Amino acid sequence: MTEPATIDAAVEVRDLTRTFGARKALDRVSFDLPRGAFLSVFGPNGAGKTTLVKVLTTLTAPSKGTAKVSGFDVVADAVELRSEIGLISHNPLLYPDLSAEENLVFFADMYGVPDAAARVRELLVAVELDHRRLDLVRTFSRGMLQRLSIARALLHRPKVLFLDEPYSGLDPHAVEILDHLIEQIRADHTFVMISHDLAKGLALCSHALILAKGKVVLSAPREELDEAEFAETYRATVGLGVA
Amino acid sequence: MAGEARGLSLRQFKAILHKDIVMELRTKEMITSMGLYALLTMVIYQVALSQSGTAFDPRNIAAGLLWLAFVFTSMLGLNRSLVHEKDQGCLEALLLSPVDRPVIFFAKAIGNLIFLLIVQALTIPVFAFLFLQQGSYAGEWWMIPLALLAGAVGISGVGTLLATMSVNTKGKDFVLAVLFVPLMYPLLLAAVSATSAAVLGGDGSVQQFWTGMGMMAGFDAIMLLASFALYEFIVGA
Fold first, then answer.
1. A162: closest CA among A192, A197, A140, A117?
2. B178 vs A94, B173, B181, CA distance in Å?
3. Residue A7 above 60 pLDDT?
4. pLDDT at site B218
5. Residue B3 buriedness (CB in 10 A; 0-12 / 13-18 / 19+)
6. Which residues make Cβ contacts (< 8 Å) with residue A50, sequence separation at least 6?
């Protein structure tokens, strides 16, 4: 995963550093991720996981180093890059006072999705919310919000999906639905997922990365990982604290 | 390619404006709070001036009273317009989309302008009833709406920029007030001057009105251009 970037790399990160005052949230992070891969990013609270996702999704500018997603630089090509990515967060990123359909139509307009009405209907059916399409989002359960959030993230057919603790706060049934949805779209997308759940993250991923104090502690393809050794390394990082 | 980009920007602009209007019509948060605040301010003015005696002509300070009410009312609304974007990370979702940041600025500023104009339209009749007795309005009828529009454009433009800056801060109401009032000072001077000329009439009032309007137009143009240029930096900070 740390070999030089190839044309097939969906994510290329080189010496990425992000500082907040004197604190280094990311400290010379480097890795490549091939297209179609599923990267699970682990690490204790404050390790820099969310900062990494924010930089890769253009929400935060790096202080040093470079990062490319789907071939686009996160700084120089930010506008073009935003069309290539989707974000599913533990926060639904939806307007509570708009209906499910109004939310999706709004974001379809923001991404310039052609034939928005048909695409919105298709996704509402896919996430099993078509029957609630006219209801205000503020009346939705956590699981329903997360399903609608997935529909929002997929509207513009992104190539790379970022998942920031997407399972956080979900009941077992909602977890099953989210698993099923990820499985359905897995073949056509590259995933970068932040997770505190070691078992879940390892079950889904093709590549794994552990961050601690803003630095890469371990990074390897799933098949090269020794699970016991990986769990031990992860446990050791929990004691390292905030970057 | 440029045409396509312009088409997308227009679609995004309309989507943000439409979304803000639909949400306001549904929640009535901004209009209700701003409208009530403005009306309560009028009542307080009335009480404050109730013992001023017959020798005192409230028309002399009417323009100042009116703009004082609009400045405080608009600060209340401007904060709310950005707070609902922060709810559940919606601002983040907006910033994740391939939208040029100035498009967000103009859509939010136009939305705020519409809401402020509605509040002004609700407030003016009450103000006229309380402070401008029949026959005491000496200016041309068209002067007041023009002065209100020019002032509202500046308030909405600068206010939207400053509300975006302050929305991520802890004491956002305080931060907005501290930034807003000093920056709006030249606009307020011009707005009060133009509105006074409209209310009081008399020799030289038309010239005074157009001088005030010219200053407001200049302020609006400079501040809107500055806001346009700075918005990308502000939302990215």
1. A192
2. 31, 9, 6
3. no
4. 96
5. exposed
6. A164, A194
Looking at the complex, report in whole angstroms how far the Cα of residue B105 sits from the nearest Cα belonging to chain A: 14
Largest CA distance in chain A: 51
CB contact B12 to A (< 8 Å) = yes
Chain B residue numbers touching A92 (CB-CB < 8 A): 88-89
Chain A residue closest to B88 (CA)? Answer: A93
ipTM: 0.86
List of residues 6+ apart from B226 with CB closer than 8 A: B161
Instruction: Residue B90: list chain A partners with CB under 8 A.
Output: 93-95
User: Which of the residue ranges A11-20, A180-189, B137-146, B227-236 has the most confident prediction, judged by mean pLDDT?
Assistant: A11-20
Three-state SS annotation for chain A: CCCCCCCCEEEEEEEEEEEECCEEEEEEEEEEEECCCEEEEECCCCCCHHHHHHHHCCCCCCCEEEEEECCEECCCCHHHHHCCEEEEECCCCCCCCCEHHHHHHHHHHHCCCCCHHHHHHHHHHHCCCHHHCCCEHHHCCHHHHHHHHHHHHHCCCCCEEEEECCCCCCCHHHHHHHHHHHHHHHHHCEEEEECCCHHHHHHHCCEEEEEECCEEEEEEEHHHCCHHHHHHHHHHHHCCCCC
Q: What is the DSSP letter of B87?
A: G
Strand order from edge to edge, sheet including A23-34: A23-34, A9-20, A64-69, A72-73
**Count of helices and strands (H, E) across chain B:** 8, 0
Q: What angle do CA B216, B218, B219 make, to 5 degrees?
A: 65
- A96 contact residues in B (CB cutoff 8 A): 87-88
- Give the separation between CA A53 and CA B164, rounded to whole angstroms: 23
pLDDT single digits (tens) B140-178: 778 889 999 999 999 999 999 998 888 878 777 788 888
CB-based contact, B51 to chain A, within 8 Å: no
Domain ranges of chain B: 2-236
Which pTM value belongs to this model? 0.88
CA neighbor of B104 nearest in space, from B87, B114, B91 = B91
